[in-house]
């Protein structure tokens, strides 16, 4: 699908639409490094009922980008919360997952997925399943 997009902006729209299919009943945002400044990430698309509010942030404000791999905040009492998420997402029942988007050794941006665990199964089991899915997608 991305190969048929005529512009980068069109690809962002497609990414947002497909993200809502990959992550049904979840929220999230796609952030790409600014074309003029590699010290800023810009939200290019979002999906879900409760997407992250932050539109711009520094890569230093994300543990996943600083460490170069998936970062999950499953337990707000013990896990580090990325500063870019803000207080609202660091202290609620959602599980923020930050996934660096890396291609050919270069970090292009970040996929931020906010997982809302359901009551049908154990929270820890759900978090592990979502971690597997996003890790597979991130490559």
Task: Describe this entry's structure for a reader.
This protein has 139 residues and is an alpha+beta fold. It has one domain (2-138): GAF domain (Beta-Lactamase, 2-Layer Sandwich), CATH 3.30.450.40. The protein is 29% helix and 27% strand. It is globular. It starts with 7 loop residues before the first helix and ends with a helix.
Total strand segments: 6
Determine the CATH superfamily: GAF domain
Overall domain count = 1
Number of helices: 4
CATH topology: Beta-Lactamase
What is the general shape? globular
Give the CATH level 1 class: Alpha Beta
* Assembly form of the protein: single chain
Residue-averaged pLDDT: 84
Unreliable spans are: none
What proportion of the residues form beta strands (DSSP E)?
25-35%
Radius of gyration: 14 Å
Widest sheet, order of strands: 3-2-1-6-5-4
Percent of residues in helical segments?
25-40%
Spell the H/E element sequence: HEEEHEHEEH
Biggest sheet features: 6 strands, antiparallel
Secondary-structure-based class equals alpha+beta
Q: Can you tell me the CATH architecture?
A: 2-Layer Sandwich
Task: Describe the secondary structure blueprint for this structure.
Elements (H helix, E strand, L loop, with lengths): L7 H15 L4 E7 L7 E7 L8 E2 L5 H5 L3 E2 L13 H5 L4 E9 L2 E10 L7 H16 L1
Antiparallel strand pairs: 1-2, 1-6, 2-3, 4-5, 5-6
Observed structural traits:
single chain; 139 residues; alpha+beta; Beta-Lactamase; six-stranded antiparallel β-sheet; 6 strands; 29% helix; globular
Quick rundown:
The protein has 139 residues and is of the alpha+beta class. It has helices at residues 8-22, 63-67, 86-90, 123-138, and strands spanning 27-33, 41-47, 56-57, 71-72, 95-103, 106-115.
């Amino acid at each position: 699908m991305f190969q048929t997009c005529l512009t980068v902006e069109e690809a962002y729209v497609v990414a947002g639409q497909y993200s809502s299919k990959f992550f049904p009943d979840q929220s999230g945002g796609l952030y790409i490094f600014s074309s003029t400044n590699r010290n800023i990430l810009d939200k290019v698309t979002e999906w879900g009922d409760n997407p992250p509010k932050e539109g711009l942030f520094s890569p230093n404000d994300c543990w996943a980008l600083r460490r170069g791999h998936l970062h999950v905040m499953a337990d707000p009492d013990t896990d580090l919360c990325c500063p870019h998420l803000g207080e609202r997402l660091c202290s609620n029942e959602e599980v923020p997952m930050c996934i660096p988007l890396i291609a050919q050794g270069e970090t292009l941006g970040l996929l931020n997925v906010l997982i809302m665990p359901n009551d049908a199964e154990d929270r820890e089991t759900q978090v592990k399943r979502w971690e597997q899915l996003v890790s597979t997608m991130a490559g």
